[in-house]
């Protein structure tokens, strides 16, 4: 079968099968942990993730005011690897963008020039995800190559999970402080509506579940530690980390959500992560197209993520 390129449908089916097998494996493994209980290690994991999330997630975009990234000379992954062999990430981005280096006024979402605004906003969101990841000890312990591969694969997925908390179910608007974003802004940016509508539906479904903060951060960690991202080297090690996170999520759900409502919640969240993966793949295609049309509008960090 070597050399055979699977269709998107086949990839999705294989991913769902992998999720199903993982769920069955976790259910068998739960015999080791009393149903509904959380071990000290699981509680510490949740605390670490929540602390990282609260420290670096700016839901109201308060620190986005006045933000416009400056050009940077060194942005490629080889330079990043050379600069950060000690596993110490810069505070703002993979390529060393300084968030404090803001010199121009922000372009508002309702001015009609959505692409520059989108580029600035996306860069800001990417930086938040990077800073979130670097707060996690097991992530920092990975090789730089694997850190890069995981971030390139998961950044936009994590960002969607983060900003789902800002999604208003009634208005279908992402309410981020004074910034009100809709899928219409995405259309004006250059995204196809056939991509944006399933993305909005995903946010509606996820928001309807009324997840706890712990469940959101555990889902973010599951997306981050995906061993099948392109370029990942330590597959088995990262798979083990992801399984530990998944078990923690399962135990948390059992402990905090009464039956029968929570009976299928864990399976639903795994399914939604698989769906988010598909949406992310389509998002990358859309971004590549937009870059081909207006390459200068994309920031260096965005080009690194979507390359």
Automatic annotation (TrEMBL):
Gene3D superfamilies: Retinoid X Receptor. PROSITE patterns: NR_LBD (PS51843). Pfam families: Hormone_recep. Residues 41-307 form the NR LBD domain. Belongs to the nuclear hormone receptor family. NR1 subfamily. It is found in: Cytoplasm, Cytoskeleton. Transmembrane segments: none annotated. GO terms for cellular component: cytoskeleton. Its main location: cytoplasm. PANTHER family: NUCLEAR HORMONE RECEPTOR, NUCLEAR RECEPTOR SUBFAMILY 1 GROUP I MEMBER 3. One of its GO terms (biological process) is negative regulation of transcription by RNA polymerase II. It comes from the Eukaryota. InterPro entries: NHR-like_dom_sf, Nucl_hrmn_rcpt_lig-bd, Nuclear_hormone_rcpt_NR1, Nuclear_hrmn_rcpt, ThyrH_rcpt. Keywords: Activator, Cytoplasm, Cytoskeleton, DNA-binding, Metal-binding, Nucleus, Phosphoprotein, Receptor, Transcription, Transcription regulation, Zinc, Zinc-finger. This is NR LBD domain-containing protein. GO terms for molecular function: nuclear receptor activity; RNA polymerase II cis-regulatory region sequence-specific DNA binding; zinc ion binding.
